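Changelog note: in this version the structure field was regenerated for every chain. One regenerated record is shown below for reference.
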Amino acid sequence: MKTEILAPAGGEEAARAALLAGADAIYLGLSRFSARAGAENFGMERFGSTLRLAHMLGAKVYVALNILVKDGELGDFFETALAVWNAGADAILLQDLFLGRELHRRYPAMVLHLSTQAGCCNVWGAELAKEFGFSRVVIARETPMSEIRQIARVIETEVFVQGALCSSFSGQCYFSSFIGNNSGNRGRCKQPCRKKYSIDRKGFGEAAYALSPSDLCLGGRLKELLAAGVASLKIEGRMRRPEYAAAAVKYYRALLDGRPAGREFCDLMRTYNRGDYTEGLAFGQDGGYLSRAVQGHIGEKIGRVSLRHGTPFCATEYRAERGDAFKILRGGREIGGAAFSKEGEGGFYLSSGEPLKAGDEVRLTTSVCSNRNALAPVKLRKIGIRLRLIAGERPLALCEGLEFRGEAPLEAAKSAPLTAEEIAACFQKTDGLPFEVHAAVETANAFMPRSSLNAFRRAFFSALADALCPPRPPLAPVAGEVHITPEAGTMSAVIGEGKADIFIYKPEDYARIERPVHAGEVFLYLPPLFTAADEALIAGKLSLFDGIYAEGYYGIALAKKYHMPLFAGTGFNLTNAYAVAGVGEYAKYFALSKELTVREQNALAARGAFALSGGDIKVMDLCYCPFGAACADCDRRALYRLTDEDGRVFPLRRYRLSGMVCRFELYNCAALSPVEGKASLLYDNSAIALRNGKMTNGHAERSLL
């Protein structure tokens, strides 16, 4: 099986750059239903031309319709999915598993990929995706290698290898939504995780980029990924420049080809590099996972500042030129930018609006040379053209099975007949098409004005492109209906602490599970990242509970395996009637998306529905340690305070499952005012100790041992 390099295409230029750099596939979004609404994205006309280019190069195009879709958008969603498929898309990416099931029911031929936003992190989620008609899953970026190996045995697997990492578990981040009404699940994340915060723990009290992961780079781990059976190496970055997409493709292509990739890696670092890269969480958290000191592009270190005759100078082997840009760090912190001034012996002089000091670190963040390297095309389709231009005959071009003739016979030349060299040179101009032309010309005493020869060439290449990219036989629209009968809920459920009909027990340490004393049903809370090791830890205790409350699709298969009732949590992100009807087939109870309005929740309040109605609002699931996993120095508190630069305090809760690294949950700075709608009431009191001010000298009364 050939391993695929999958590149981001935020717009036409990035798509072309990635394809000509050698990408096997690209993924892109349209103007609607894309999880990157801030990218340039594509209308149907530009999508068609990009699709044509990709298919001429033998590459695939995947379309991301991967936001949460609400009821009022369902008609447009199904029409859009059908339109992009009929236009020739090779696959469609979705976040909503149940919408995928409905698309598969309507159009079994449609190829569906499950987006990383769906949070597939174990075999249970993979098996469910396969059952619902998906042919590939994009694995959650927090998934350990042990799980990746298992998933790859179930279904075709796509893994992120390069680019930005989300701070929260994918699909489970509501930070941007609740502090600014810009939902990441709706494609409008404003990245509050990239801002500065302090944490009330020794050594972390100074404001820093406390939740900002470094960029991912798994170039050094390709052998392990390939051995695990990963089918597609995915590069993140639909918001980034074309040269980034091209440089990343060339870097991974060199590695896959077994070639030295030193120059390609330098070019990649210079196009975008946050935090000097991390290997993420698949291989265990490394010390550089967070980029606490510098938030944005840090580039490549090329030297340090010295002063020559009082002028800042960088001694380096790098040959700087006009247009290059630099970032200056002092003590690991950014102090400003700089530009190339002039060459000097052994380096170059810098100009900057900030006073530079000897010893300052010089980082190259824009390299004109590297951008040229990245954007230089390396993947062109080699074609052989046989051209016959004979006086008295219609001009003829033969290529790839296409026989193309001009409209009228050629005139006999009176003085200067066409030469084979002239004709061959004309057909080297491919009108922007990705061809490397080898022309064999036969001509005799023919005359053709240059304008007519150019017109013949353009018409031929247009016909060749059509022949190489034939239209897909269109699928006819298939109707579908789903009916939800709202009914008033009469129950209550509580997470963490409090009294209700259903108690959802949320341990601080899953190795110490005990059934709490409660008169009603007791469900065990399971977080969105759940692994085989986690299952092994809790399997012997499941019989203590009346059911499981799961924050991900995997809960469907897990509940079935242990013959337990399922409470599908808010992490299922149920936003439409297909999702609600679908989950109702498997879950005794289910929570509607907490990003819906009360009116939207009321319309989906079927039997068994709950809605978050008060208490804490969990806005992020952190599957890493924000303190660098320095366990020896850890104070092991259960609750911390994360404070932003405006003084708002966000509770940060620690808990332990399997593995060496603790996990954390971040809660909104304000509790949810009690809200009642038609659905039964769900309260989250996970951080109630902090909310109620039950602190001793700034420390939570409870702590993890």
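Spot check on this record: Confidence is low (pLDDT under 50) at residues 693-705. The two ends are 47 Å apart (CA to CA).
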